[in-house]
Amino acid sequence: MKIESQVLKNILVYLFIVILPTTVGSILFTNYHYQSFIKKQTTETEEMVQFHSSYIDRFIGETIAGTETLGIVLENKNSNEEIKNILVSIHKKDERFSGLYWANPEGDILVSSLGLDKKVNIGYREYFKQAIQTKRTVISPAHKGVVTGRFIVTIATPVLSSNEVEGVLLFSLRLDYLENVIKVLSPDEILRVVDYTGQELINTNQDFHSLDTDIIRTELDNVNWMIEARPRKTLTHKKEFILNSIIFSGIVLILTHILFLFGKYLLLKRQASREREENELQKLELVGTLAASTAHEIKNPLTGVKGLIQLLSEKHKDPTDQFYFSVIQQEITRINDIVNEFLILGKPTADKRKSYDINEIVKEVQPIIKSETNLYNIEFDLQLTSLPLYIMCSNDNIKQVVLNVAKNAIESMQKDGGHLTISIQKEENSCLLTIKDTGVGIPKKILAKVYHPFFTNKDTGTGLGLVICKRIVNMYNGTIEIDSIEGKGTTVQIRFPLHDE
Questions:
Q1: SS3 content of the chain, % helix, strand, coil (to 5)
Q2: Contacts of 463 (CB under 8 A, 6+ apart)
Q3: Which secondary structure element, helix H or strand E, spans residue 192, and what is its range?
Q4: CA dihedral of 317, 323, 325, 331, whole degrees rounded to 10
Q5: 420-434 confidence digits (pLDDT tens)
Q6: Cβ-contact 377, 411 below 8 angstroms
Q7: Does an H or E element contain 326, and which?
Q8: pTM of the predicted model, to two decimals?
Q9: Which end of the chain, N or C, is less packed with Cβ atoms under 10 Å?
Q10: In this structure, are strands 418-427 and 378-383 parallel, antiparallel, or unpaired?
């Protein structure tokens, strides 16, 4: 059941870290890429519309200017034959014109660049009437030409003589020619041209009305026309678009996999650290159980042995015997100290807690520490606070911690002397006990193992001193930190939460 739960958890983590970000990222990228493409197409369409509007405007403007200039020339031409030659010559040079005509004020076409088989009258055309009435150039709506039958627009320019209309010059523009030019210049664009009545003059693509994209419009300056265009929604570079999306998805997938593996690594590292801590706790529990069950059994016979050795030493006064008895007494004392450490480790909660001033606790052990430092020519400096700092603890346990750490510091300076500093200060809601020495320091590879039971780099150490210290400090919700530089010294910082007296 636990294995199935772990597998399900791994699957969910994989989905949230790999699959979900990859899917969402790919969708967002594809949408962004698509929107960028649409925006680019819209910009290109706007530029295309401006280009064609300029082209048509220029063409209409040049044509109007040409008709008006020709009208001035024809004011002095009385012969229809001369007029025909001029119109035919112009028509041959420019395919944009469907036909060029000369009509009298009544609308009868007198001269044509194409030749007439029958009499043609356009006097009924509104644009023609307007040109006669206003005596100004007029552009017609799109219509079917009477002479050619083509779809055209006609530019009508009245020719005046003494401010009276002598005739009307007519230039018919081929809308199909303009449409073909636009298709050649922009073969893939969807564009049309409409006049002021909404009549469609040019349409480059029949899909114009079937698309739902926004219409881009611009009005012409020289004629009352409007150009309309729609951007295409289709991707012109579909393969490139798909390839970019696949590449992006692949990159996101790789990155999320790296993130997933890194997360798994951190989890495994955390789990391994937790397992190591549990193993250390199990070791301490094992030691504690062993200590609780055997320590008293050892102390009882040890007390008897110690007493008997004392009696024998009083009976046998021989110097050699006395030397042996002293060695035995020292070793018994050493065994007794080890058993006492086992008792502390085995029953850390067997204490009577009260509120004590930590300054007073340290003062009580000051003489012991002072005598040791004097023995090895070590300078000792004690720095206490002016105000009491109360902690909830058993004073014997705190003394044990201070003496153990101070003893280690003194041992690190026994050869060359040094300086031992014990200071107490307040830090917000806790008190900081610092024990600093200038001894040989602790190598980094050893520093990580100092809290392991039975680990020691001393010839006569038990490997339980710092283990007991840490156990006591943790028991009072405190922390202990060791910072050491090899060859320069060690600093031990112990924090305890303050207790309101």
A1: 55, 20, 25
A2: 452, 453, 454, 455, 456
A3: strand 190-195
A4: 170
A5: 999 999 988 899 999
A6: no
A7: helix 319-346
A8: 0.47
A9: N
A10: parallel
